[in-house]
Specification:
Elements (H helix, E strand, L loop, with lengths): L1 H41 L18 H9 L2 H32 L5 H11 L4 H14 L7 H4 L6 H12 L3 H9 L4 H12 L1 H17 L2 H6 L8 H11 L4 H33 L4
Helix pairs in contact: 1-13, 2-13, 3-7, 3-10, 4-7, 7-10, 8-9, 10-13, 12-13
């Protein structure tokens, strides 16, 4: 009787495991289906759009079409330069802000943290016009700084880093203070190395958001010399609106670097998100 019970329990565990993995695989396929569709379509000839073709009929002509008819190298440079600028600025600004909110005792700290949480609820569309007017007054329209400086500070990333620093034992910092380390040295030599997963996460998030951003670049730039990939591909769509396969090639060119960056940093990103919500 005991062996029968054990056998039934083992079968139930196997069934539950298969159901779990089946659900995960199905969900993954649903998530990547649009990208697979874009990739397959980008390899088709325009007359074959939305038709299944033999693998031998697939071609790279759409990518050559994009490269020959659009300044894709310039768009890539602009996007990469702006993305790196935002990532570096975000790591510096948000990490320091998160550390201050987590570790420093100063008047108004609680109010400052509540303001950061409040700003999280404000969508970008609500502040886009005031931000545009400010950028225009500074004379930053059609410039790199207009797409970098305003987006170095991010309330979500400040919250993320604050949660990362809150989880650090205070005994480590107290030991550093006893050894004569100042506040900034403690932050730079001890706190930062211990929160590298959170720093890597915010760098990837800031980079992904900036790389995929469309609303801000299309608002702040009208000079084609400063177009990023999203804006440039939108003009490509208006020029070649009958060539959907060319548009899909542009989508793949835009998406692949983001996927590569996420895959490279995923081991650091997942633990950071898993622990950010449970640290007080």
């Amino acid at each position: 009787m005991t062996s029968l019970t054990w056998g039934h329990s083992r079968r139930r565990r196997h069934v539950a495991t298969w159901i779990k993995y089946g659900f995960l695989v199905s969900s993954s396929l649903v998530m990547i289906a649009p990208l697979l569709f874009a990739l397959y379509t980008s390899l088709e000839s325009p007359p074959d759009y939305l038709h299944w073709v033999a693998p031998t009929a697939l071609t790279l002509s759409n990518y050559r079409y994009v490269i020959d008819n659009a300044p894709i190298a310039r768009w890539y440079f602009n996007t990469a330069f702006i993305t790196v600028g935002v990532m570096v600025g975000a790591v510096v600004v948000n990490t320091m802000a998160g550390y201050a909110l987590a570790r420093l005792r100063f008047p108004g700290r609680t109010v400052s943290f509540l303001v950061v949480l409040g700003v999280l609820m404000v969508p970008l569309q609500a502040i886009l016009i005031p931000l545009y007017l400010l950028v225009a007054q500074l004379g930053w329209l059609n410039s790199y700084q207009s797409l970098i400086v305003p987006f170095m500070a991010n309330p979500f990333l400040i919250f993320l880093m604050r949660q990362s620093f809150v989880g650090l034992p205070r005994d480590i910092e107290d030991s550093a203070a006893i050894d004569g380390a100042g506040r900034f040295r403690t932050f730079l030599r001890i706190a930062v190395p211990l929160t590298m997963s959170g720093i890597a996460t915010q760098a990837v998030l800031a980079g992904t958001w900036t790389w995929n951003s469309f609303m801000v670049p299309v608002t702040f730039t009208t000079n084609p010399s400063y177009f990023v990939l999203t804006v440039g591909l939108n003009t490509l769509q208006s020029q070649f609106y009958t060539l959907q396969t060319v548009q899909m090639a542009g989508v793949v060119l835009l998406t692949v670097p983001v996927i590569a960056m996420f895959l490279f940093f995923q081991r650091l990103i997942v633990p950071s998100f898993a622990t950010a919500g449970i640290k007080g």
